[in-house]
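step: validate -> pass
step: tokenize input -> pass
step: predict -> running
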Amino acid sequence: MQLIGMLDSPFVRRVAVSMAVLDIAFEHRPLSVFRHFDAFAAVNPVVKAPTLIEDDGTLLIDSSLILDHLDHKVPPQRRLMPQDTEQRRRALHLIGFALAACEKTVQIVYERNLRPADKQHEPWIDRVSGQLSAAYAMLERELAASGGVARGDGWLTGERMMQADLTVAIAWRFTQYILPGTIDPALHPALAAFSERAEALPVFAGAPLA
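step: predict -> pass
step: emit ->
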């Protein structure tokens, strides 16, 4: 099994960390969709990261679809998505806002770094920045209201670290790394502390952002 893509992508990294938690062995091939376009296209002509190559050669794309597939490789009690309906709904709620934050971060980076300065549209950047801020404001409220998480001794959807925890922590670290100063950690103390706690774990350290 191969995971294709760079770990500076939060979408690739959430798959890599999840596979470590699930104890699913894989080979990581750090191909960039920009710097290694032709090499990536030889693997997946769509050139989308992450790409997972299954042992039988099947290509899977989109981090959420890949993770759903991987979750069903392990017994239900080890899966990273809750089996309980209410907990699953909460996990989807948190993951959705975390992925939205990742997407808005990427949109800002692309606008700033890939589009010529004279072609950049500030009203669009302002709009996306507002969406990014709103996503993290929502997540901050959720974490601050979660007793165990706020105290640093619990997780978001159960007694162990699961997919909502991974995705929220990875999203926060990604935005802080790639757009420093855009989202103030001082205004998001619960998120900052939660991500720092997760990043200290071996499964995160084994898939470093940089």
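step: describe -> The beta strands are 2-4, 27-29, 51-53, 59-61.
step: cleanup -> pass
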